[in-house]
Amino acid sequence: MKNSKITHKITQGVYTLTTQKGGCIVDAVARVGNRHDAPLIAVSVAKTNHSHQLLAESNRFALSVLSQKVDPEIIQVFGFNCSKDCDKLAQVKHHEEGAVPVLDDTLGYMVMEKVDAIDAGTHTIYIGKMIEGDVLDDGEPMSYAYYQEHKDDLVKTTTENKETAWVCMACGYVYYGAEVPEDYKCPVCGLGKKNFKLKDS
Predict the structure, then answer these.
(1) What domain range is 190 assigned to?
(2) Can you say how many angstroms the Cα of residue 146 is from the centroid of all Cα atoms in its chain?
(3) Which of 182, 180, 171 is nearest to 198 (CA)?
(4) What is the number of structural domains in the chain?
(5) Quick one: which of 32, 17, 55, 14 has its CA closest to 140?
(6) Phi/psi at 14 (nearest 5 deg)?
(7) Strand 22-26 to strand 94-97: parallel, antiparallel, or no bridges (unpaired)?
(8) Residues in the chain with pLDDT values less than 70
(9) 165-168 vs 196-198, strand pairing mode
(10) pTM of the entire structure?
(11) First-to-last C-alpha distance (Å) of the chain
């Protein structure tokens, strides 16, 4: 493959997906139709992501639309932590709509009732019927291309202990340690050690 980074040019947005017990950052979201005059929205979630399990066990989920001026803490909390290890929702301002938590510091939200799940190999495509939605701010949505261009500013790459940071070139996940283990797999996109680059100080 000559350059897989062409996928960074796909015009898709960046969102937080939330359920009652946690959530994650997602970028593969699309409107795919209507059911009983309600929009149908599809979201693809990696099977290696704990949020995949949370969503499989949930009847409803929400997508909050991130802006270009989003607080980087939201990217860090929902993109680079696991819901098994911490309470992500306790770290950000949110409220409930349709019995699902949605984030306050976003352009708006869509609450979905899950209607289908399609096995796509490494991912599952969940389809939901929108039962609630609102616009909270009129800012510019963050695109996947914008995220890739600005991820150094959006992703925390140092710690108080000055640990070495290795950045996944595909998704921006940061691994801290002297070396990335040989058998390590990125918990966000599933790629291995060779996809990580040492973060310049």
Answers:
(1) 157-198
(2) 14
(3) 180
(4) 2
(5) 14
(6) -125, 130
(7) unpaired
(8) 1-11, 155-162, 200-201
(9) antiparallel
(10) 0.77
(11) 30
Give a yes or no: residue 150 inside a domain.
Answer: no
Closest CA to 117 of 126, 129, 109, 108: 126
How far is residue 69 CA from its own chain's centroid?
16
Report yes or no on 151 lying in a domain: no
Q: Give pLDDT tens digits for 47-80.
A: 988 899 999 999 999 999 999 999 888 988 888 7
Per the CB < 8 A criterion, the answer to whether 126 and 42 are in contact is yes
Residues 63 and 116 both lie in one domain: yes
Which 8-state DSSP code applies to residue 32? E
CATH code for the domain in which residue 21 is found: 2.30.110.10
- Shared domain check, 173 and 130: no
The per-residue pLDDT for 167 is: 82
Q: Is residue 164 part of a domain?
A: yes
Indicate if 178 and 82 belong to the same structural domain: no
